Amino acid sequence: MRSLLSALLALTLPIFPTGPAGAWPLDGYPDTGIRRLEYDRLVVAGEFQGTAPPVGARLPTSAIDLRLTGLADLDLPTPDPAFTDEIKGLLGVNADVYALAVLDLSDLDDITYAEWRGDYHQNVGSVGKLVAVLGLLQALADTWPEDTGQRWEVMKQTPVIADSFSQSDHHTVRFYDPDSRTTHRRSIAIDDEASLFEYLDWTVSVSSNSAAAMVMREAMLLRELGQDYPPDNEAIPGILDGLGSSGRTTLFQETFWAPMARNGIDLADFRQGSFFTRGGKARVNGGGDSYATVRALALYALRMEQGRLVDEWSSRQLKRLLYLTERRIRYASSPKLRDAAVWFKSGSLYGCKEEPGFDCGAYRGNVRNYMNSLAIVEQEVDGQRIHYISALISNKLRENAAVAHQNLGGAVHELILARHAAN
Question: Which has more pLDDT, 324 or 13?
């Protein structure tokens, strides 16, 4: 395996402007105001005790960019039968409770796609937060179509104060004070204040339901108010209440459903139908179910790599947010991916009932056991650039789905490496 320095140099591309200076992700606290990034940087630098991110999660800003902007017309190819047989083979006897799509982009002259149960629909849990983030980015672009600097300033400078929309959530987020260099973790509480950028980071990096609900509230306000956003905090309840129940549902769909369709994602195959918190659902009826297919997830990632989710600027911010997860979990936690750069989002839903002799619990439900993963993986191995998109959905009851996805993440990676070993 190459050294970290070699890997960084191999993956580095020219820097594209993303804001006033554009220096993020891990080194991005000065530009973004995301305080967690400064904590993580200090851990990597050895100035703080803590768990440092793996080698593949330490790339500089210049290495985190869109890879397919020159292939804007590319669509998901017709599934290759031989490749599909290979990826289906990874699922073994449980293939019928899994869906898997893999787009191999390692050789741009021979892009190959494999798909097993590509049209199978399932609630994908927190993967639906990709819809929430897209809704905000689309609203920003529609409000300031020619001014990415203003979009950046809105994300960085807008204070967001948690209200009942945020409640409640078991996920904890990191609160870090750069001045005192103190840190603690807890769930988001009412009246917690942070920038819109930090709420975006918490939505993606630790999959906070509370943060996602606040991002969705802000996206709806931005869609409603346009350049009059942000409103005074005291005015927010009146703005939303004034719409009435049906008006809030319409605004929800204009904010989160319409952008999916506008960006080429079929709502019949990927949709977020509600808020992620009880408080949010009590205030806004989204008006539909939530679900996705692996085909739609792979297409979402492809469109992002092409710069076609809203625009190149928005796609680039989204990709950098997906890189900055606090921990690699589930699919992305495979030891085989330690040295690879991974962009991912996962989500789970499980349900239990009494069953003699079985200890039901997190990620091993016996009523439902949904586990869902979307990952983009890049790595330089012996002069060969590896780049692929993988989308995985499962509902295998009574197994630890987090471990199953971890194992499959490693197996897919080994399969891709083997496909290009002789090239």
Answer: 324
